[in-house]
Amino acid sequence: MADEIRAEMVANVWKVVASVGDEVAEGDTLVILESMKMEIPVLSESDGTVAQLAVNEGDVVQEGDLIAVIED
Length: 72
Hints:
By secondary structure, the chain is mostly beta strands. Helix content is about 0%, strand content about 55%. The protein is built from no helices and eight strands. The chain is globular.
């Protein structure tokens, strides 16, 4: 089963921390967003493997946009 991680707000992708194929645990930082001069970490919601990263540094995401997919 795959978990889709989606943006909770409009923000810039400041830094991509994880890579496709990385093993992650629940709570690990995948991406850091920047909005209104604040850095907001996007965390894995489950243990698994990063199957897809849908953003790159410098991208602008809208609320609900796909950021990453984590597979068991």
